């Protein structure tokens, strides 16, 4: 199980102050065996290094050349899935985003649907303007927005002033069956006094272009209304209109805690590769303080 690294032997030889000829006698030996043999001969440097390996991250980094991701990988691959999961929070945001590239587009969409809507909307804003979102949103989603119990009716009525009178007449007449007034103020007043069911149906009866215009005016005035749209409406929009690379980049705005959970969805072999990007000092410290048993195995060979 020992790490086969030529530079490790070079480091040991220099650190212990022994000749190349003597080092040849230790070919095939583990680090522990070499240190034990030297310590038995009174080599104080060997005694000190034996102690440093379990307490000094810098010495451990040099010993196993941990700055090289390949050497980190050898160690990480011996860890259990739960042990690897505990290293994921030590990764930087950019490293987590790089890890997302190992997922398929379908998997990314599935994970986006599972995170809080606020995080999903933040991601969508990285790829689409507000106007584009409303343009791409299915009409039934806009109906859901305009007729939601959370919708501020006063805000809707205020923005109806931006809709031409002829369209206000159409939706009012569609639910009353009577000729509507032509004055905008009167039209909005009558719409405001409709019963709840007729009021909601009138909004649904808007021509698509006007429905999108009204929806954009409302969502632009208060971004909280973007949370009214279903998660799958957003992910369908992304998968249809954006490439995987654009999606991965946009997901960099998601809070680390949710990206951590996504990384844990990777197969162990791929997760191990992602974790090799961990800061070397943090990795060495984790081996010493959290996984001394793993460290001991590599030292023992």
Rg result? 32 Å
Q: In one word, what is the shape? A: rod-shaped
- Major beta sheet, specifics? none
What order do the SSEs take from the amino end to the carboxyl end, as H and E?
A: HHHHHHHHHHHHHHHHHHHHHHH
Return the average pLDDT rounded to an integer.
Answer: 91
Q: How much beta, percentage-wise?
A: under 5%
Name the structural class: mainly alpha
Count, helices = 23
Can you give the helix content as a percent range?
Answer: 55-70%
List unreliable stretches of 5+ residues: none
Protein traits:
single chain, 301 residues, mainly alpha, 23 helices, 0% strand, rod-shaped
What does this structure look like?
This protein has 301 residues and is an all-alpha fold. Helices cover 68% and strands 0% of the residues. The chain is rod-shaped, with a radius of gyration of 32 Å.
How would the blueprint of this fold be written?
Elements (H helix, E strand, L loop, with lengths): L5 H11 L3 H5 L6 H10 L3 H9 L4 H8 L4 H8 L4 H7 L5 H8 L4 H10 L2 H9 L4 H7 L2 H8 L6 H7 L5 H12 L7 H9 L3 H9 L3 H14 L9 H11 L2 H7 L5 H8 L4 H8 L4 H10 L2 H9 L1
Helix pairs in contact: 3-4, 5-22, 8-20, 8-21, 9-18, 11-17, 12-17, 14-15, 14-16, 22-23
């Amino acid at each position: 199980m020992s790490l086969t690294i030529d530079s490790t032997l070079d480091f040991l030889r220099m650190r212990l102050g022994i000749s190349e000829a003597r080092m040849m006698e230790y070919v095939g030996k583990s680090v522990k065996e070499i240190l034990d043999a030297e310590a038995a001969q009174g080599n104080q440097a060997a005694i000190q290094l034996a102690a440093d390996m379990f307490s000094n991250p810098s010495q451990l980094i040099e010993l196993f050349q941990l700055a090289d991701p390949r050497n980190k990988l050898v160690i990480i691959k011996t860890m259990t899935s739960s042990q690897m999961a505990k290293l994921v929070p030590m990764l930087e945001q950019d490293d987590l985003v790089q890890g997302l590239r190992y997922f398929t587009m379908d998997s990314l969409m599935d994970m986006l649907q599972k995170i809080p809507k606020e995080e999903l909307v933040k991601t969508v804003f990285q790829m689409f303007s507000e106007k584009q979102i409303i343009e791409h949103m299915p009409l039934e989603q806009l109906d859901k927005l305009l007729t939601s119990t959370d919708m501020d009716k006063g805000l809707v009525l205020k923005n109806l002033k931006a809709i031409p009178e002829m369209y206000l007449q159409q939706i009012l007449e569609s639910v009353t069956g009577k000729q509507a007034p032509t004055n905008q103020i009167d039209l909005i007043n009558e719409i405001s006094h409709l019963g709840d069911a007729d009021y909601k149906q009138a909004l649904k009866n808007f021509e698509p272009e006007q429905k999108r215009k009204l929806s954009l005016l409302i969502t632009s005035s208060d971004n909280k209304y973007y949370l009214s749209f279903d998660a799958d409406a957003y992910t369908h929009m992304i998968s249809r209109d954006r490439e995987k690379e654009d999606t991965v980049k946009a997901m960099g705005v998601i809070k680390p805690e949710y990206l951590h959970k996504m990384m844990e969805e990777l197969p162990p072999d791929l997760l191990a590769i992602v974790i090799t990007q961990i800061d070397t000092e943090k990795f060495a410290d984790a081996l010493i303080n959290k996984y001394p048993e793993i460290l001991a195995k590599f030292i023992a060979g």
